[in-house]
Amino acid sequence: MEKKVDNTEETLNVDALFMGPKSENHKYFKETLNFLMDEHIHWRRDFHPDDKPVVSLREQREPDFEATLERTTNALLELSSKLKASSMPWFSARYLGHMNSDTLMAANLAYMATILYNPNNCAYEGAPATTALEIEVGKQFATMLGFDPEKAWGHITTDGTIANYEGLWVARNLKSIPPAIKEVKPELVEGMDDWQLLNLPTGKILDLVSKAKEAEVFEAVRERSVRGTGMQSGKLGKLLVPQSKHYSWTKAADVLGIGQANMVYVQVKENYRMDIEVLRATIDKFVSEKTPILGVVTVAGTTEEGAIDEVHEVVKLRDEYEKAGISFYIHVDAAYGGYMRSVFLDENDRFMDFDDLKERLHDGGILHKEIDWPSRDVYDAYKAMAEVDSITLDPHKMGYVPYAAGGVALKDKRAIDLISYFAAYVFEKTEDNPMLLGSYIMEGSKAGASAAAVWAAHRVVPLNIMGYGRIVGRSVEGAARFYNSLLSTSANEIEAAGKKFMVAPLTRPDFNIVDFAFNEVGNTSLEAMDKLNQKIYEQCSYNSGPVFNDDWITSKTDLAYEDYGDAPKPFVARLGIPAEEWDAVRSVYVIRSCVLTPFLTNNTTYAEYWGNFMNTIRDVLAFVVNLG
Question: How many helices (H) and strands (E) does the chain have?
């Protein structure tokens, strides 16, 4: 029987999960690492102990042997010097830039221990231990995301990009199955015209796949599907994605032959969520033209704003269209925000009622009582994830495990038959063998160490409110505090070098990204404001020299009309920029801070942090003013 981890409140202290900004837990980490290294050394020695050593003690004392070890030492010392000189200090709360933070000790130690065994999760015989761990993690993904783990399929990918590819890969192949069945076994779809075949719901298509297997024509059907005949431009319809989509979707349309012309960008609102009414109008337009909808992509945690699309409204929209005979695949790109669903689950992995959740978050000390989160829309979006077809999530983001570890989950594991391949020398072909990872995925060789890291993280930190919910909750609270502090500061002017400046956040964060920009009081030039914020970024990033000289480190982005339409227009107006300036420039440069750190929730710590931040900003603004 599998040993269960105790999920009671007293068993998880977030501060004990990380090495810490000042290596507070270094003793535990180092002792455990030494133990794991010893375990591996003993494993090698104990494998057929009667075998004699290949290298004798005398040979180890030879000059060339010692010179080779010295050469190795020198290379590693040089590497260490380079790493310390210019690596980003993800562990420090002074770093609020990209989607990085300190990583879990359990994940780091598991990765370091496993890498010595060098398992390859492409095939079971290359990684018996870690392949089983990856299968287990896939079921954990499914449970956290609201899928039935016995009916779903999930696994670890290199990153969210590959996971997005796999989601679209399934959607593309799935859409082409009904027309292929009509060619091979028309009686299975008798009475359906081509339009009906291209608008079948996912479940009904997979039911047809089961019937094709029973009729022993499935291989012939796959040969007549898109995987056999290739893409015919536009035949499978349009892929609808929000303007806030990650750039991987543009690449996916290329790689999978969908084509840029068949990917349609849906306008976002001022809060950077996809506009559902624009989505509806877009679908109506294509339906009126008898153009099918291949799929709709929603985003849970946009990479630039952390916005959570209204997944529940997209699901409702599909339900509405299905009554009229129109259906489409739904994928949620939750590479960034996927692990946030753990916050909504109780100890038994049940999605909590809204009021119960709010009470647990505050009474359980997960969020300070002053933090009003989540909004009802965010809550409903995460609840609706259980109704979509596939979801991307990244353990190496909000899972707090080391790179590279993305992930994908499919609601119905029957879909993997649409993308499976077998190589005779690698796989033992059977009717149902979930260990054949390499057959069902886009990658070939893949690190078993990543699977071990994710598995160990999940083993220590449950995927519910008492586990990851505590870590993610700290991140959400830190972002809320930072946003509220910016709001308070926006009501007061910042004085630096004899000039006055203002600051405004882009939008209230759905998650933990806070975007903002500064402007000199009285300035109405958007171009001048952009230059100011660019100079601020340059002084608060690697651009200013060695990062250990920086008091605060962040990232930036541009919000341009080509990507977002007029969504940023109200934001620049709050900073004193007139509408005609936006209409002329149509782009705004913003500071982007991802608040993944779990170390900004203590009142005293945060107050000191904010004071240091404001001192840094005043110094930077003064420097920029004096720089001219």
Answer: 24, 13
